[in-house]
Amino acid sequence: SDLAVKDDIKNLLVLQDKDAKIFDLNSKIAVASAKIAECDKDIAQQKNLMGEFERAVGDLQNQRMSLRAERKAVEDRILKYKTQLLSVKKNDEYTALNAAIDKSAQEVSAFEEKELEIMFKIDEFAPKLDAEKQERQKNIDEINSRKSLYAEQIENLKAALENAQIDRRRAETNVSPKFL
Question: pLDDT at position 178, please?
Answer without folding.
Answer: 83
